[in-house]
Automatic annotation (TrEMBL), chains A, B:
This is Phosphate acyltransferase. It comes from Sulfitobacter alexandrii. NCBIfam families: plsX. Homodimer. Probably interacts with PlsY. One of its GO terms (cellular component) is cytoplasm. It holds the Pfam family FA_synthesis. It comes from the Bacteria. GO terms for molecular function: phosphate:acyl-[acyl carrier protein] acyltransferase activity. Its main location: cytoplasm. Belongs to the PlsX family. Pathway: Lipid metabolism; phospholipid metabolism. It catalyses: a fatty acyl-[ACP] + phosphate = an acyl phosphate + holo-[ACP]. InterPro entries: FA_synthesis, Phospholipid_synth_PlsX-like. Catalyzes the reversible formation of acyl-phosphate (acyl-PO(4)) from acyl-[acyl-carrier-protein] (acyl-ACP). This enzyme utilizes acyl-ACP as fatty acyl donor, but not acyl-CoA.
């Protein structure tokens, strides 16, 4: 079923995205629908779709816009949400996730997209793509809704690792600004280092050290450094890139998401409360939907693994076609801007003579 | 101006609250107005009000409900928001904050309330009240709006210290459950330990150790242990007490507050967008105000310093009369339930023979 004509077509002048079609909560139908949306919006992209050919072929055949732009690469096995990363690394060779990463490792595609198990995706990406020279800890970056003009801040790390020393935090700043430049078109990103206060004397020792390291690189690496920022600045407009360790970052974004959900549920109840409030919700419907879209995580769906030889975009496990499509759009932009080459060059340029690439 | 009759009246059968009347953003008028609200709502409380007598006396004289229930104790100096804690500890003897804490140190009042500089308040409280036996790191606990029946979770530490080891986290669990029992009337609080995943193998080493320590105390200390929780559970209903270190906790609550503010601003804009949406906001006004009250930080205004010989309630610096009154209500409940004695007994009971009280 792997049509050779498709394969050729996909390679001819197209930006090729490697997509893990299995493993999301919504199944391959949502992934194919997301590819279809992206294909309509962007005539320059094509796909290698990894997964069960028997399931995927009929789904792809139904989408005319995917014709000649979507190769199916069969993978018999699937990484499930409950699988342990260590196990997937040992025995996951036949999975669609492995196959999707493999297409990046061989250089066929620059970026892979998956809705699957985050831990397994990170572990496989690390083992198969390997770290860039100068990067000790790769990071997961997300876009967090903010009051900035662009509507979002880049935040990293949000959970690739539970620790980060001062040197890692400097690398996160470099990788995050590279991502902001190439993924969000911010020419000179403003970097903030997350802390419990904005005074220079506050916080943990490694943060004070990281403060100096990041400040000293701001000129040569072409970013602004706004210094320490606080939790409230993640959704604010003081910085474009928020740098923190993966433990703090993970807790922070989940706290923010949880709080937003709690308010959303409260609003729904408030609007159901009386006939008047039900009428109100109808009248305000358009405005409320506009707000919802602005802070909808599906629109910025995609944690990005940074610091590897190749880029991997992690889409929400529960992503529907809109979510998958947003992740693919991000993947295409990063691929077209040759993001990872620029990131690698940026990190390499800051290595001092004392340091050995690791 | 310190009327002896007032002083006597305040002591006769009343719960005496020591209040730092200066140092909040809104000035002493808001603090006195808050005392006045509390005095109307609760006939059993009385106040020692610390600050500039010349400013305070006319404010108190205007409030009939404070007559005979409010002693003014003159303090010439004020701790400002920009003062460094170390400096206040050395030279702050004449400040209203010092005086307010002193009334707790001498046993005159069980609880002090201040809207002032958090760092200075914590430093002064530590130095003057000293740590309880068995407590290495005191903690600041806050109530965070949640989908629990009580509407809030207790979370600690949110910034007394940037670090906490496994043993500290166990103490936080004990102090937090004591607070939930006495401040929130939850007979058997459910404790969750904040982590980046709920699986037992995840997270930092000290968290796995703390997991075992807390689990082993749950029977003897009369709480449930729900294990690891994530950032999303801070506003959820999985636990009543969320235990974490002061760095993570501080970032988390500020991230949540920031996100809530961003959504609130977005809602206001949405409702201003068109004539229809403006009409909608009028129709839904009552319901929206109900929601706002539910998640209003002023209602649960009051971080509480736990682990000292005496309780100190930190009210928001920007607290108005409603906010101050909420902090005073909390202070009164903690005082009436003899909370700090119970907390001290609870922590002391879990000291093993290997440990030396510090």
């Amino acid at each position: 079923m792997t049509a050779p004509t498709d394969h050729t077509a996909a390679k001819a002048g197209h930006t090729l995205i490697s997509v893990d079609a299995m493993g999301g909560d919504e199944g391959p139908a949502a992934v194919v629908a997301g590819c279809s949306l992206s294909a309509k919006a962007n005539p320059d992209i094509a796909f290698v779709l990894h997964g069960d050919e028997a399931q995927l072929a009929p789904l792809v055949a139904k989408r005319r816009e995917l014709e000649g732009r979507c190769e199916i690469r069969h993978a018999a096995d699937v990484v499930r949400m409950e699988d342990k990363p260590s196990q997937v690394v040992r025995t996951g060779k036949d999975t669609s996730m492995w196959s999707a990463i493999e297409a990046v490792r061989t250089g066929e595609a620059a970026v892979a997209v998956s809705c699957g198990n985050t831990g397994a995706l990170m572990a496989l990406s690390m083992i198969r793509l390997k770290k860039l020279p100068g990067v000790n800890r790769p990071a997961i970056a997300v876009l967090y809704p903010s009051s900035n003009p662009q509507g979002f801040n880049v935040m990293l790390d949000v959970g690739a690792d539970v620790r980060a020393d001062a040197d890692d935090l400097l690398r996160f700043a470099l990788m995050g600004t590279s991502y902001a430049r190439n993924g969000m078109d911010i020419a000179r990103p403003r970097v903030g280092l997350l802390n419990v206060g904005t005074e220079e004397h506050k916080g943990r020792a490694e943060l004070k050290e990281a403060y100096d390291l990041i400040r000293d690189q701001r000129e040569s690496a072409g970013f602004e450094f706004v210094g320490f920022v606080e939790g409230g600045d993640i959704s604010g407009d003081a910085a474009d890139v928020i740098v923190t360790d993966g433990f703090t970052g993970n807790v922070a974004i989940k706290t923010g998401e949880g709080t937003a959900n709690m308010i959303g549920n409260g609003l729904r109840e408030a609007f159901k409360y009386s006939p008047l409030s039900r009428l109100a919700s109808l009248l305000a419907y358009t405005s409320l939907m506009r707000l919802r879209r602005r802070i909808d995580p599906r629109r910025v769906n995609g944690g990005v693994f940074l610091g590897l030889n190749g880029t991997v975009v992690k889409s929400h496990g529960a992503a529907d076609a809109t979510g998958v499509s947003a992740a693919i759009r991000l993947a295409a932009q990063l691929s077209e801007s040759r993001f990872n080459d620029k990131l690698a060059a940026r990190v390499a340029a800051t290595l001092t003579t004392e340091e050995t690439p690791s």
